[in-house]
Amino acid sequence: DETEFRNFIVWLEDQKIRHYKIEDRGNLRNIHSEDWPKSFEKYMKDVNCPFKIQERQETVDWLLGLAVRLEYGDNADKYKDSTPDGAKNADNAAKNAEPLINLDVNNPDFKAGVMALANLLQIQRHDDYLVMLKAIRILVQERLTQDAIAKASQSKEGLPVALEKHILGFDTGDAVINEAAQILRLLHIEELRELQTKINEAIVAVQAIIADPKTDHRLGKVGR
Question: Which domain of life is it from (predicted)?
Fold first, then answer.
């Protein structure tokens, strides 16, 4: 818009550039005059703008750059330590992405939250709330992720078992009872195997919580 463009030029000169003395800005301020383009062209020459009057986009960009340089020169101490908004937003985004960086483990709200989670997930209490938090993380990763839930929801199809190939070890004198005893023994063995698997998982989880970071079992040594 022509009127807005002229007002913009006058505002830049009045507020930021101030190349003319106040009494010499009359022709530039008279934005409704037919001679305003000539006054503007003269102004561009006076401020040493390298662009022509027809190159408005380039002229506006150059004048804004001039205004910024002059504004900074007048207030160098104020602006020299300023941080761009983009950098501030990036720093804030980084902090928000890592909410545990500044976590206060002694905060009562933190302790209460960990304790509530531990009770909800039926995790053994520990004096160190960070240890409980790690245990919660392990449980969530192994049992409550989408993949873990989907895997646990899958129905297990058993394989047919030939009872005659499994020796009972004793004889009740009744073929039907013998067969029932064989079935119970096989079910008991399956339960023992499942229990052993859970024990192994618990051992691994405990080791992950209390392991010394300097210990590397792959190297066959402890410490550095």
Answer: Eukaryota
